[in-house]
Amino acid sequence: MKRFVGQGVVLAILLAFGFWSGLAQQPRIESLLPQIRLPQGFKISIFAWVPGARSMTVSSPLGVVFVGTRQDTVYAVVDRDKNGVADEVIKYATGLKVPNGVDFKNGFLYVAEQHRILRYAAAEFDLYKPFPPDVIFDKLPDKALHGWRYIRIGPDNKLYVAVGAPCNICDLEGYEGTVLRMNLDGSNPEVFLSGQRNIVGMDWHPRTRVFYATNNGADGMGDDVPPDTLIRADRPGLFFGFPYVATAGGKVKSPGYEDKQPPMPVTPAVMEFQAHSATLGIHFYRGKVFPEPYRSGAFVARHGSWNRSTPVGYDLLFIQFDAKGNPVRQQPFATGWLGPTGAWGRPVDVKELPDGSLLVSDDFAGVIYRITYTGK
């Protein structure tokens, strides 16, 4: 009898913390995985179960995958035997304020909260009890809308921070609507680019080292207006037009700004995506395992629409680049998270493991997928 009561108490605790529902979700997601359609020779599997998985970064040399969330926790995912399935998911840091953005360099883990950036020294040294972090930058706008920050360390060894507009369409103040660039200790911050509404994914072309980013357009203007965009910045100081245009580098004027002139020339986007598809993470493939057409091309995660009559997105796109490093076409790569009865997954970020496989985070299903190429 005591044993039965004890199990009931444990079950109540698990339910109270949402743990049981997460476990119950796992068989369902596994059963739906065959619905994902990939090009011939590719395979998708479950790498790890991570609640609210968002931005990812892969450490070196141990290959720990650090995962940010829009909750209060950063996770460390460990695949010790390198068999493509995580052995352990660890709560690396908790009690944080929307620690969405993560990146790793030279032993340091960088975490972007809504209002500041933290740096954890020797991040791989003790995943269970990390050293207290240093606050390297604390002047980010502390506003909730588009307040989940995205960070990347560029080939110039600088830290890039995307600061979205805290609104749908509005006048901007301070660092709002910019991408900041600073030293890895947080010193010498500068505005790298401005006039962006909500830049999410950032990466650099492997050969040209030119900066590319995905941007989400404004809502409430109709099903097909404005498009999400891909922007390119080959030098600092470019202006992409928001809020005078409704999406970075776009042509559609924002409501209320039709008669207003931008303060400087608007740099046009280099590619458009379907409106409201919510293009998020972008990753240039640097490995040699995928076939030649995928090398030095970019994978883009589309989180999916929430304010459109007919849902779109919920997939992965592939962008092909020409020999000069220019984007030339986009095509579906992984589809199937959106089914006849609705969406069961929402891709967020794409990163590459040392073995050349891709990781794709999904904050809706609470999972990280692994995509491999078998050639069969």
Uncertain segments are 1-21
The figure for the number of domains is 2
CATH class of the largest domain: Mainly Beta
Principal-axis shape equals globular
**CATH superfamily placement of the largest domain:** TolB, C-terminal domain
Helix content: under 10%
The SSE order reads HHEEEEEEEEEEEEEEEEEEEEEEEEEEE
Q: Give the strand order of the largest sheet, numbering strands 1, 2, ... along the chain.
A: 10-11-12-13-17
- Strand share of the residues? 35-45%
Average pLDDT rating: 93
Structural class: mainly beta
**Terminal residue distance:** 55 Å
For the secondary structure, the number of strands is 27
For the CA atoms, what is the radius of gyration? 21 Å
Major sheet characteristics: 5 strands, mixed
Q: What is the CATH topology classification name of the largest domain?
A: Neuraminidase
The CATH architecture of the largest domain comes to 6 Propeller
The number of distinct helices, counting runs of at least 4 residues, comes to: 2
